[in-house]
Write a structure and sequence with these properties.
The longest helix is centred in the C-terminal third of the chain and has 25 residues. This protein is mostly helical.
Length: 176
């Protein structure tokens, strides 16, 4: 996995397994932004991340993260259709990633959370300001280039977009 894609997956791991679990891993490694740390974290948590994604129940997920503000959100999502839900969710995520106000809001939330990390507040804030904009841009590019719903097996892979085609094209290692 390329260095430029790794921070996006680290952010997903933090969301999936929770800050406490990931923070415990970071205390053992002082090179928080480094390539080695990223690879080690992915080796440790990638399987768990994708297992957590597979456990997502659309209605519960939306309620938990406040995405169900109006009933129309589910109007085009068939009950029990993981693929349709995945595609719908990715559309929502992409629209948020393209919104500069949403990026600013994410950074504000993370900076606020940094104040909870005793002894590392300034380091955390520096990492947020340095890496989150890059993670968001790279995340957006990754989602545009990849059929994530097929990668997490929520949808059947299209003939052109199999995992082997991603590797052959170098998409997972490409500059984001």
């Amino acid at each position: 996995m390329g260095l430029r894609v790794a921070p996006f997956f680290v952010a997903l791991v933090l969301l999936a397994v929770g800050w406490d679990t990931a923070h415990a891993a970071t205390t053992q490694n002082k090179h928080v932004g480094g390539f080695i740390y990223c690879i080690e974290l992915m080796d440790s948590y990638a399987t768990l991340l994708f297992a957590k994604i597979m456990e997502i129940k659309p209605k519960e997920f939306c309620k938990q993260y406040g995405l169900c503000r109006d009933i129309a959100f589910f109007s085009n999502v068939r009950t029990g259709s993981t693929c349709v839900f995945c595609r719908h969710l990715l559309d929502k995520i992409m629209s948020k990633l393209k919104d500069p106000d949403a990026e600013f809001e994410i950074i504000q939330i993370l900076l606020k959370e940094c104040s909870k990390i005793e002894g590392h507040v300034q380091q955390c804030k520096r990492l947020v300001l340095q890496y989150i904009p890059l993670i968001l841009v790279n995340g957006e590019k990754f989602l545009e280039k990849n059929d994530v719903c097929a990668l997490v097996q929520a949808c059947d892979a299209s003939p052109k977009r199999t995992v082997s085609s991603f590797l052959e094209e170098g998409i997972l290692l490409s500059d984001a």
